[in-house]
Each structure stands twice: as structure tokens, then as C-alpha cells.
Amino acid sequence: MAILLFVVPLVVVFGLVSLLGPKTSNWVFISNSYPWLWSSQSSSPSLNLTGASNSSSELPPLNDDVLGSRSSVVVVDMHSIEEAHSDDSLQNRSSSPPLSIEEAVTPTLEQPGDDYLANETHVSIMKAEGQRKKTNLGWLEARLRRARAAIREAKFGIQTQDVDYIPNGPMYWNANAFQRSYLEMEKRFKVFVYGEGEPPLFHNGPCKSIYSMEGNFIHEIEVNKQFRTRDPNKAHVYFLPFSVTMLVRFVYVRDSHDFGPIRQTVRDYVNIVSGKYPYWNRSLGADHFMVACHDWGPETSNSDPHLRKNSIRVLCNANTSEGFNPSKDVSFPEINLQTGDTHGFLGGPSPRLRSILAFFAGGVHGPIRPVLLEYWENKDEDLRVHQYLPKGISYYDMMRRSKFCLCPSGYEVASPRVVEAIYTGCVPVLISDHYVPPFSDVLNWKSFSVEVKVSEIPNLKNILMSISTRQYIRMQRRVVQVRRHFEVNSPPKRFDVFHMILHSIWLRRLNVRVHDDQ
């Protein structure tokens, strides 16, 4: 009786605390990486959900049961999410990609049937009488769990036959897993584009400049019939269709150094869509994304704290030292489409016809290029390094004649030279610190490019000369093979740059679970 008298009031107090306590967010960040692609022997990192130090109050490592048919949703508050996204967790994924997984070939596992989906534990809301009712979001999350399971199984299976393309080779961390993930994306992934806003700031962007990928992606997703859905209840992600380049052109007051008008415009837009639709508030932006190839993309995302900390930011300026988080953000390839397409830019001679060891030509801006020019400008016949090309010499012809193309960062980490090198069959040499190359969650950049730290610039020639002819030929062939993933097509083609960007967003959405809290 004494125990009963003590326990009953305690239960009542806890009940009142749970009802009157602070509101929590309706999403959970599964991991700082992609555990659904790891081997069953590997251990995944824990998420700190308390705001305390990492030494206590942690969730156990995610395992197959958590991500499989018995998976359940954990609700965490925003302070916990911010702790889990602390700067200490950031890594330069160009050297440690999130999808580093074992390659194995075993018989294909049978995929779950429709009956499996019906038996899955899914996100739900409670009826007044205590019964569970499956929501549209619950069905979406259940199907995403099936996709995770299929991808996890594919890394040990046999690839599916495909008439267009079958990923294969060391350019991929795991070709089987990538193919299955891509096919799952084609089968399931849906994007809702908010219709609010008017051009030129919204639903519009540049298509013939160094920022052309911004406008290209906005246009292609808006006219796409396969991935775009007009029904927001069927969407996995929600696109905020503003163009940072257009905001800089039409809202920013030149030479004012005042980001206020840009921030206010984006803040107003988020307020409009969050007031009209329930989706932003439901996940605090975790299933929303923006794209930006302008250098001010990261600064623009600061307009709303949830946009920066929770949303998927697709950025050309993928700099981990400035807050780029490879586990939730996407590295956007910077492509300078001077004429609006790639006609005349693709292709180059075989390795034996490339007589120049390395080439660079470009203006002096940022901290890295002055160092490169100081050591190598016009000082070595093997390393053709110029600030300005001599008259009558073609920039692209020089790239086609070179074995390696130097791609130093400018003011920001991204450079269009990376994709230009791939287009011309020249092995890119990434000279940068803190840069995450595009699609590095799928592509093993070390197999077809050279990474050089800024401190190693004085030793650049020795580094390149140490690469054997045999190894160079392998790298050059791999550059040609991965080129399809960077090609711009209109309309888009399977596995091209548009689909690879979508696939990167798809992977980040798989890394988050959202649920209703009604």
C-alpha cells in the first residue's frame, strides 16, 4: 500500500510533465553517415540526444533491427539535433566519404513483397480511442524503410541488368549499392516544388554563366514529370525555388555589404510557405532543400536558423570549414555553361597524345592561386601555369593536351575547372582545403583524381611525376567513365548530372525520418 501511494502520484506528475513539457520536433536524424549501407559487422556512431557530453546518455548504435521491419521513430528536440550536428562531427568527406563500404558478391536477396509493407511498423497518429491510424506520411516512411533495406541487401548481391548503364569499377565506393539506390530513387522519389513566388527571384535562375547549374536545376525540376509531384502529401522532399544569384542581382544593393534584404526575402518566403502548408513546421525544414551555386549560398541559408541547421543545402561552396555538413548537405557541381549547353566541350585525345604534364590558367583571387603562381608561373615546361594565356592559345585545347589539369580554389572552394577537366578527359588535381567534391557519397574521387594540399604546392611536380604511366592511364580512363555523371542534358538523361544531384538529395532524405505529431 505504501509503495502504491508513492507510485500513483509519481505517474500523475510524469504525465503532466509530458503533456505540458516543451514541444519537440517531429523528425530524427538517423546518423552522421549512411548506416543502411554499412556491413553488419561495422558499428555506427551514436547520436547524442541529451545535449550532454558524448560520454553519457547516448543511443545504442543503429543496427539492422532499428533500420529493418521493426524500426520505430524516435522523437528528439531541436537542442538535441543541434548537438548531434555539432562542428565536431564534421569531416572532409573528400578523404573519408560517407559511403565507404565493403565490396562483396553473394546471391541476391529476395526483396520484400507487398505483404511485408503491410506488416511493417509505421509512423502513425493516435486516435482518441487509442487505435492507430496510418497517415500519408506513415506510408511514405514505410516505403523509405523498404528502400533502405533493399540498398543494404544490394551491397552483397548481384547487380540488376540495365539497358542504359550498369555502374562498375573502382570509381564507385560500392557499385551494387549505388545502382540499387538509384533504381529505388527512380521508383519512389517525389519532389514538391512550392508554387509561391514570382520570377525573377523565384522559379528562375541563370543558365549561361558560372552559376548556370542553379538555373538549370530549377528549370529541369519544374518541368520534370517523373520526380515532381503536384500533391505535397506524396512528396518526400520540398523544394524552396529561390535563386541566390537572382537575389544578389535584384535584391542586394551593390557595394552595400548588407545581406539584410536577401535574408529578409528568404525569411518572408519561409514564413509564407510554413503558414500555408504544414510541412515545414512538421519537420522544422529537415525534408526541405535549397540550391545555390553563388558564393553567397551558405550566407543566404542563414536567413532562417532551421534552413541552415536542418534543411538539405545543395551548395557549390561545399566548404566544411564554413559549416558545410556532408551528412545532410549536398555538394553541387559548378559548371560554367557559357552557351547554355555542353556542345563542343566534351571529349579529348587518348593519354598517349597528351604531351603536357599539367596545366592551369586563371586570375589571381583567393589565398591559394597566388601560392601556385608564385612557385610555378612560367617556370617549368612540364607545368604550364599561367595567369593569362598567350595570345592565340585555346584554353580548352590546352586542357585536351594535358595529362593533369590543376584545379585550385579561388575565393571559395569550388571551381568550374574540376568539371571542365572531366569533360576534356584530363585528370583533375584538386588543390584545396576543406572541399567536399560532388557525389563523393557515391564516387571514389581518389581513383580518378589527385588531391594536393595547399602546403604541398611547392612539391607539386614531384607528386605528379611519382604517378606511374600505368596508374595515370587507369585514372584517365576512369575520368572518361564518370563523365556521364557530370554531363548536362536537356532533357536530362539517366545517370547524368541532374539525376546525380537528385540522387544526392535522395540519400540525405533517407538519412532522416519524419513523423506526424497530431
Radius of gyration: 25 Å
Strand content: 5-15%
Average pLDDT confidence is 80
Most strands sheet: 5 strands, parallel
**In which order are the strands of the major sheet placed?**
4-5-6-7-8
Query: How many alpha or pi helices?
Result: 18
Shape: globular
Q: How widely separated are the two ends? A: 37 Å
Number of strands: 14
- Class derived from helix and strand content: alpha/beta
Helix content: 25-40%
Keywords: Glycosyltransferase, Golgi apparatus, Signal, Signal-anchor, Transferase, Transmembrane
Membrane topology: Single-pass type II membrane protein
Subcellular location: Golgi apparatus membrane
GO cellular component, one term: Golgi membrane
Describe this structure in words.
By secondary structure, the protein is of the alpha/beta class. Among the domains are: 191-338 and 493-511, no CATH class; 356-486, Glycogen Phosphorylase B (Rossmann fold). The chain is built from 18 helices and 14 strands.
List keywords for this structure.
518 residues, alpha/beta, Rossmann fold, five-stranded parallel β-sheet, 14 strands, 34% helix, globular
Short overview:
By secondary structure, the chain is α/β, with parallel strands linked by helices. It contains 18 helices and 14 strands. It is found in: Golgi apparatus membrane.
List the helices and strands and how they pair.
Elements: H1 2-20, E1 27-29, H2 64-67, H3 78-84, H4 114-119, E2 124-126, E3 132-134, H5 136-154, H6 175-188, E4 191-193, H7 212-223, E5 237-239, H8 244-250, H9 260-276, H10 279-283, E6 288-292, H11 297-301, H12 305-309, E7 312-315, E8 330-331, E9 356-361, H13 369-376, E10 383-386, H14 395-401, E11 402-408, H15 417-423, E12 427-431, E13 450-452, H16 460-465, H17 469-482, H18 497-510, E14 512-514
Parallel strand pairs: 4-5, 5-6, 6-7, 7-8, 9-10, 9-11, 11-12, 12-13
Antiparallel strand pairs: 1-14, 2-3
Helix pairs in contact: 5-6
